[in-house]
Write a structure and sequence with these properties.
3 copies of one chain form a homotrimer. Chain A has about 140 residues and is α+β, with helices and mostly antiparallel strands. The first copy, chain A, is about 25% helix and about 40% strand. Chain A has helices at about 20-30, 60-70, 85-95, and strands at about 1-10, 15-20, 35-40, 45-55, 100-105, 110, 115-120, 130-135. In chain A, the strands form 2 sheets. Chain A has a 5-stranded antiparallel β-sheet, with helices on one face. A 3-stranded antiparallel β-sheet of chain A has the order 2-7-4. The longest helix of chain A is centred in the middle third of the chain and has 13 residues, at about 60-70. The radius of gyration of chain A is 16 Å and the shape is elongated.
C-alpha cells in the first residue's frame, strides 16, 4: 500500500463552477494507482466542492440560481466587513462539501458517466484556491 | 493493510429513502476487515447518500417534505428536458452527500445506535443505482 | 502503512458550534502520523460536522440564523415526540456533514489558514456527543 499527496491550485474568475475532474484523473494516473481512495479537500471557507452533471451547462446555471436564493446577499448578516458576498459564501460552503473521496477501481475514478467534480467559487472576485489531494492504494 | 472494492446496486421504486446499512456491514464482514475505513460513493447526480435516524419512519417523511420545499418542481429551471423532477433532483443531490466514509472499529461500522445509511432517490420513476464501495484496513 | 482509531467525546451546552480542531491535531500527533488521511465521523443524527471560519465569531452566529430559517421549529412536522427542536435537528444534520476526511501532509492537517472543524449541536439541551476518529498513513 502506498500514498501520495499534492496541492492542486485553481485560479477562479469569480463566482461559478470550475471543473477539475481531469486534474484528479491525472494525479491518480501519475501516481500509478490502480486501486485505492482519492480525497480532494478544499482549503477555504468561501469556496467548496460539488459533484454534478457535466453534460448540460444549464444544470450549473440553475444550481447557481438556487444557491443565490438559499443564501441571499444583503440579508442583514452580522459578518459583512468583507463585502455583501462574503457571508453568503460561507453559507453556500456550509450547504455543499469541503471534502470528497472517490474510490479508484481498475485504474480509474469510480465516477458515474455524467459526474464531474467542481470547485464551487462563492466569491464575486477572482481567487486563487488550493485543493489538497491525497490518494492511498496500490 | 489490505483493500477491496465492489459495486452495490439498488433498484429504486422512485423518490424516497432506501436503507442499505446491512449491505455495508455485509461487505466489511465478507472482507474480514476488523479495523479500517469504509467509503460509499453514489455514481449519480440525481440520487445521493444520507445518514439519518432509522427508528421512526416519520423522520424520513418530514425530510422528504423539507427537500420538496427547498427544491420545488416547476420553479422555472433552464434544465427541464428530462422532466419537472430532474432539476429538483440535482438540487437535492447538491444539498446532501455523494460520498460517505465510515470508520470500521472492532469489526463493525462505527455508526451510532440510531444511524442508518440511505440512498436518497430523487427521481419520481424507478431507477437502477450504483454505489461504489471501498474498504481499506486489516 | 498504519492506522489508528479512537472515540472523541464532546459535552455540548445546547445548540451551537463546538470547535475540536485541536483534538484532531492532537490525535494525529500522538499517533505520529506525518502523512495520511484523518476521518471524523459524527455518531448522531441530531448533531453534525462543519468546517468553517474560526476567525470572526459572527460567521457562526449568522450561520445559526440561516439554519434556523432553513429548518424552522413548529413547521407541522410528523416527527415531534422528542420536542420542537428534534425534527429541525435532523434537517440541519441532513444539510451539513456527518463525516469529514482531511489529508495529513508534512505532519499537519491540510486545513486552510482560517478553517476550523466544528461539531454543530442542533438540540437545545446539552448532550454528550461521540465523534469516531480514524487515521491511516505513516
Amino acid at each position: 500500500m502506498r500514498q501520495a499527496a499534492k496541492l492542486h491550485r485553481i485560479e477562479t474568475g469569480g463566482r461559478g463552477f470550475y471543473e477539475f475532474t481531469a486534474a484528479l484523473a491525472d494525479f491518480v494516473r501519475s501516481e500509478r494507482m490502480s486501486a485505492g481512495l482519492l480525497t480532494a479537500f478544499c482549503r477555504h471557507t468561501s469556496a467548496s466542492l460539488l459533484i454534478q452533471e457535466n453534460a448540460d451547462p444549464s444544470v450549473l446555471a440553475d444550481l447557481e440560481a438556487v444557491f443565490a436564493r438559499l443564501a441571499p446577499e444583503g440579508a442583514g448578516y452580522a459578518h459583512d466587513t468583507e463585502g455583501p458576498d462574503d457571508m453568503p459564501a460561507h453559507i453556500r460552503a456550509a450547504l455543499t462539501q469541503t471534502q470528497l473521496s472517490i474510490p479508484v477501481i481498475g485504474g480509474a475514478l469510480a465516477l458515474g458517466t455524467w459526474q464531474g467534480v467542481y470547485l464551487f467559487e462563492h466569491r464575486r472576485r477572482p481567487h486563487r484556491r488550493e485543493i489538497a489531494l491525497h490518494v492511498i492504494g496500490e
